[in-house]
Specification:
alpha/beta; Urease, subunit C, domain 1; TIM Barrel; 11-stranded mixed beta sheet; 16 helices; 33% helix; globular; binds zinc ion
Amino acid sequence: MAWELVNGTIVTPHDVIERGAITIDKTRIAQVAKTSRKANDTMQIDVNGMLVFPGLINCHDHLMGTYVPRVGDRRPYLNWLEWDNDLKSAAAYAERQQIESSDLYQIGGFRHLLCGITRVQDHIPHFVRELFGKNMPIRIISDFAMAHSVTSFALKWGDGIEVEHAKAKEKNIPFITHCSEGYDEETLKSVETLAAKHALSKQTVLIHGIAFSDRDIEMLAENKCNVVWCPVSNLYMFEQTARVKELMDAGINVSLGTDSPMSGSFSIFEEFRTAREFYKFAYGKAIDDRVLVDMLTVNAARAMCLPDAGEIAEGKTADLLLIDGASTNPWAALTHADYADVMLVIADGQPRYGDIAFQPVFEAMKIPYQNVLVKGARKIIAGDIIGVQERIRRAVKFKKELDFLPIEAA
Ligand SMILES: [Zn+2]
């Protein structure tokens, strides 16, 4: 069944269409029109000037690590391994171990859905995700080749850098690895090592890159590599983050990732805030809001090799985020948004989460939902978020508060 969102302020990569209409047919965007006309045979939803963005794409997370509090007794760290040792001996980790991995995946999906993220890259070997990441509230990006990181002490994920990168080239999927996340001798040589293994290309997606040298940046630009910036996680663990302006000035495609909440941000809203603050502090001027939005939409789709995602256009997957805000600068409205501003999230052509005002849409489309309060705002959400929350509290035997899931039954 086709249906239509009308009177929205539609943000496409090239244009802002006021009072426009989007026709959704099954999982796809069938039409983007500059005017909204009354059609007799389609359900029309008047979104009354709301800002309509593509669903956001989060390019880095570890869904099984969706837990709190953050771990970091011995910050700043030399590299990820030092942090990981602290993680494994932390009380929060022991607590987390009592929870079913599939439930950690579920809350990982829900935490992003509340922020308008409709796809997430889950950095973990495929067999783990295939086991636990089922029936998710949002889509997990599953088509990628990978390594954990680039040093001799990397976890043994995938079939080795050369093989995985070759796989990525052959299938036109990303080759994703943590890179230059720290300051030990081997980590500092990560980009050189990748070059020696012929693993720098447009398929290459490097997460973090806090220690990139000028020469590294040159090599990444020459080879059209992609970088995923995770400012909250980096600044928390290392008090340092990637030289994002230099990367962008070199023409490198930069997207944004939250990492897991045990080191990273609780929400994309926090990530936006930190990204803005860091940029101002480091470069003495404001980062363009549009650049930040691009990092979660077009840039992310390019890095993840997802031609169907990241923009609102005919034929793309109907992943949409509607927020409340002024149409004078929609990008600023999004990068300054908070939970209450998220009015509707559509993934694969179906409403998954939204303001209580959209209840009739969920009803008409026969989508089972729960009534919830998100930071006091009345929302409805598809799936069983309350049940997952209860299972987690039963597993840890107390009323655990999950800061990244500010939700209660209404
Ligand atoms: Zn990571």
